[in-house]
Every structure is written in structure tokens, then in C-alpha cells.
Amino acid sequence: MRIQHLSLTNFRNYSRLELDFPPGVVLLLGDNAQGMTNLLEAIFTLSRMRSPRTGTERELVNWLALEEDLPFARLAAQLQKGEETERVELSLVQNGLSTPEGNGNTLRKHVRLNGANKRALEVVGQLSAVLFMPQDIDLVSGSPSGRRHYLDDTLCQVDSHYCRELQRYTRVLTERNFLLRSLRNRSYDPSELTFWDQRLVEHGSYLVLKRRQMLEQLNAEAQRIHLRLTGELEHLRLEYVASVRIAGCSEPGYQMELLAGARGTSVSQNVIDLPAVSAAFVAQLGKMRNKELEQGVTLVGPHRDDLRFVVNGADMNVYGSRGQQRTVALSLKLAEVDLVTQIKKDKPILLLDDVISELDAAHRSHLFATLDTVQQVVITTTDLVHFSPDFLARATLWRVSAGRVDEGLKLP
């Protein structure tokens, strides 16, 4: 897969932009705050139908356009998938309703695929893209919610049914928590929770199973890539830390047990199916019932799960240096490229935002070797000093300045 053409109107600091993208490596050169990251954000937004940087769509609209009577923004990309072409389009238009902050009207999404109106969920993943940004180190060092979001985002890109089940689970979880809070101070009939328990297990079990299955594949790819990035000095293992404990399934232990962990082990050696997950989920909901009623919140389910990164037996969330955490996050994103390729039989577009300057020479060399296998890569940088002459000779160089892109630059 690759982008053939990208069109932006009133997106961030781009009032109007039309770009023909070549295959291979596109190198965006510019100073900070000129629009390089915004360009990557636009591509990723067309992939997920949401921004990776903000949940407020009003922030995506060019500030000059916000002063107009009918502010709007439009993003569109023409894609090449094998011998076929597709067009993905996202428009943000004013809907007349005021924002909660009172700073203007909210915006409504209009999504199109090949000219036909679609729901956003139907278009997610049509443009396959993997984005790595400096703040992605938080995947390793940050909170469990960020890691859960990463698992959900990756799965939604390759499994539309997972995305629907995630939406259903989230709605059920909200309703069940509301009911639990209302039951704290009054007597209740246990059957009041039965319906929501059944729906929670139905949708949540699918999420847990698919996360485990994906992590098995992701773990194998991440191990291989991390060995190459570290010169075979560090062995990475991904572990799914689930709140739904399944009988007969080995779960990760405490740090002392991890220090004795074997190299190259997978997430789990057990075959786990949906009935096994559902049975375990039901049993643990029963055990936690009194505590959930006391606290007024659901304590078991995929919304409580986590992802652990173990390098040479040490948990990187606790014991990893910033350099190690950055390399783990990069390994994870490069493994995601391979995972998406295996599932969709087409390589995703790789987006790297100011990554090269954060790596030492050895890591850069290993990364450049990996990039040769990707059909299309877009990299931002403020300086060309970190790129070898051979790499620059193969790349297409564009300069980005104040919302303008100058194509076809020659190296000095």
C-alpha cells in the first residue's frame, strides 16, 4: 500500500495542500513548528478517522478558517493497493451545536470511501499506517490505559469486528458501573445485574481473546526486531497481564520470577478459546461481586488489563532506562508493521516523527536496514546530519516551512 496523492484543506497550519507522493522514503526537512508533524497527523487521521494528538476535532481546523461563518476542514488521500486504487476522504463541518467550553460550534464528521458516504468505523484501516512519535515512549513508561489503547487501536486497524465489540463493551461497562453505584446504598435483587453481566462477558471475552492472539504474533516479531536493533544484546518479551485469569494458562509473575525468565518465550504456550475466556470471566465476576458493590465499579475485564515489556528478565516499565524504553517502543511499532502486513497481505505506510535524532549510530543503522522492506515511509527531521549519503540518495527530500511543502529539493 502507498499514498499516491494527499489533499488537505484548512487542516492545522495547511490552508491548502496538494501532494503527489512517490514510493519509498519521503524525507520531510524543516524547523520545529512548521507543519511536518501535522502532515504525518493528517495521514494517520485518514487511517483511523481520528487524530493521534487530540480528541478535540475543532483543534484540527486551521485557525483562520475558524473565523469564517462555516468553518470546515477536509482531508483526502488516493491510495494504491496492488493493482487497485481507492480514495478516502474525511470532512469536518460545523453542525450548529455549541461546544461545552462555549468557544464556538462543534464539528461533525463526513466520511467517504470511493465517493460513497460511510460510517467512520467502516473506513478505519482502509489506509493502513503505523505512526511512531517521540512521546510513544509512554507506551512503555506510562500508564496501563495507554497500553490498552494501543492494543485496541492496532486491532481495530485489522479487525473491524473487534472495533464494534469494543464499542459495545464500552457502552455495557458504562451502564453496569452506573447500576453498581446505584446499588451501593440499597438492598437489591442479584438478577438486576444478570443482564449486564452476560453482555459484559459476551463482548469482553472477545476482546481478551483477540488481544491474546494478536500479542502472540506481535511478540514473535518484536523479539526478532529488538534483537536486531540492539545488536543481539537484549532479548524482549511481551506479556499480556489479564484481569481475567484462565485456568491452565501461565500468567506473568512478579519481578523476582521475571529475573529468571527464559529468553524468547512467547506470551502463552496454552491454546485458549472463547468458551475458556468466557467461563473464567463469569467465575471471576462472581468472586468480585461484593467488592464491586462496595466500590461501585467493575473490577474485572479487559478495561483492567495491561501489557508488560520484559528485556533480559527486567520489567522495562520499572527498570528500563529512557534509551531502553525508546528502543522497546520502536521495536513494538516496527513489529506492528509486520503484523499488519501478515494479516492484510499488504505493507502499511510507516510514519516516523523526529525519531532518528533520538537514536545512536548503531540503532540508526539497524533502523535504516529495516526501512528497506517497507513500501512507503515518511520521516520528519530538523537536520540531515544523521542520515548517510547512501540513504539520502534513495530518499525524496521535501522542505516544510510555515504550512508549505517544497518538493524535489536537491542535496547541498
Entry summary:
This protein has helices spanning 36-48, 63-66, 120-123, 138-141, 144-158, 160-183, 194-229, 255-258, 274-295, 316-319, 322-344, 361-371, 389-394, and strands at 2-11, 14-20, 24-29, 72-81, 84-98, 105-113, 116-118, 129-132, 236-241, 306-311, 314-315, 349-353, 376-381, 396-401, 404-406. The chain contains 13 helices and 15 strands.
Give a description of the structure.
The chain is 41% helix and 24% strand. By secondary structure, it is α/β, with parallel strands linked by helices. The chain has a 6-stranded antiparallel sheet. Helix 5 (144-158) packs across helix 6 (160-183) and helix 6 packs across helix 7. The two termini are 31 Å apart. The relative contact order is 0.16.
> β content, as a range?
15-25%
**What strand line-up does the widest sheet have?**
2-1-4-5-6-7
> What is the level-2 CATH architecture name of the largest domain?
Up-down Bundle
CATH topology of the largest domain: Glutathione S-transferase Yfyf (Class Pi), Chain A, domain 2
Order of helices and strands: EEEHHEEEEHEHHHHEHHEEHHEHEHEE
Judging from the principal axes of the Cα atoms, what is the shape? Answer: globular
- Count of structural domains: 2
The tally of beta strands, per DSSP, is 15
Radius of gyration, in Å, reads 23 Å
